[in-house]
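User: I need a structural model of Carboxylesterase family protein from Streptomyces broussonetiae for a docking pre-check later this week. Nothing fancy, just the predicted C-alpha cells so I can convert them on my end. Input:
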Amino acid sequence: METGRSSQDERGEHDDRGREPARGHGPRQGQAVTQGGAVTFRGIPYAASPAGEPRFAAPRQHPGWTGVREAVQGGPAAPQATSRLEQVMGHRAG
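Assistant: Understood. Predicted C-alpha cells for Carboxylesterase family protein:
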C-alpha cells in the first residue's frame, strides 16, 4: 500500500498517490490500495461527539480539524455489554 496526502477537490477524484478530497472537514492522509486502485480513509468522524447534553439528539456536524489528519486506522469501537453466553462459550477474539 502507498500513503498519500489529500487535497480539497469537489469532483471526488484521486490520483495514483492516494490523494482524495477532504469532504469539508480538512485535509487527511490515507492509503492507496493496490488492487482496484481504491483509496481507503479510516477513522474519519462523521459527526461531533454526542457526549453529555446532546446524547439522544440528532447528530451535529463535526467541527473539522487543522493540518493533515492521519486516516489509516479505524476509530474506537462502540462499547457493548458482555454477552451472557460468554460464561458458557468463552471469550471469542475478533
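Before docking, keep this in mind: The chain has one domain: 1-51+59-75.
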